[in-house]
Amino acid sequence: MKNRILVLGAGGFIGRRVIDDLARDPSVTPVAATRGAHAAEFPRGVEMVTLDATNAVDLARTLENAAGVVNCVAGSMRSIVDGARALAAAARSRERSLRIVHLSSLAVYGTATGIVDESSTLLGDLDEYSGAKVTAESALGGLASLVTLRPGIVYGPGSPLWSVYIGRLLAAGRLGNLGTDGEGICNLVFIDDVVRAIKRALTYPGIEGGVFNLSGALAPTWNDYFRLYALALGATPVRAVSKLRLAAEMRLISPALKIVEILANSKAQRLPPAIRPWLLARCRHRIRMDVRRAEDTLKMAWQPLEIGLAATAKWFRDGGRS
User: Fold this and answer.
1) How far apart are CA 135 and CA 81, in angstroms?
2) Domain span at 43
3) Phi, psi torsion values for 274, nearest 5 degrees
4) Category of 189 on φ-ψ map: left (φ > 0), alpha (ψ -120 to 50) or beta
5) Is the pLDDT assigned to residue 321 strictly greater than 90?
């Protein structure tokens, strides 16, 4: 009998990739839970269910025959928090426990600097997303069968922020070497590595209650990431972006582009991208994830950055920008 694995947030970037991977496992029946219709996006053999993941009663009913659940719920801060609370309530209402894999984030460490491991304090003070991720972890705390994964910057084909948005900026010649503003640490992790960690977290015995950072072995600076990705894209020469230019972006260009983007609505992909303040904040942030626990316990080996970027750049050049 196949194990039914429920994926919450299956319509999102990571959720879709988890479903695709589980669909290739003959021992698993993946169940894709989304708020709307995503049938065309899922492989044959995937069960689909329309579900409000913040409704504990409906979620408990959906979990009745599941052997495991992967929480990839994204979206608004309220969805992240309410979804975690509903999952905790639904899991506690079951007679038998099931393995829960919760996808958290590097953001839980907030403004901490230096090396952070899984025992580091969760500050959650970076922004609203950071705080929501800490609250979500707290809501799920105490579940005996919970495994928590904290990925860093998840890049790769399909990544809307770190591959599409950054790729568009680089292709437009609007991003490059930021000088001292780009010397923060970019804790990149390839999407395939995240999916591999999720599958192992679903099946490995004796890891209940475990928390695992996920990031590539060699974390570059953000300047290095932009340079290497630009080279892979063929977006050369890589320009230097002065502090004066960045100041103009923040005060003049980005606000104007944001207004035009809102007014343009569906045509926004044709517009030049704007450099957002939150991106610059991350580019300055000097935080490095300690991933030895994932390497030792989950037996993780990370995709070399040059191979991951080559695959990402090919996908981007082939039109994968939405």
Assistant:
1) 6
2) 3-158+188-215+287-302
3) -105, 145
4) beta
5) no
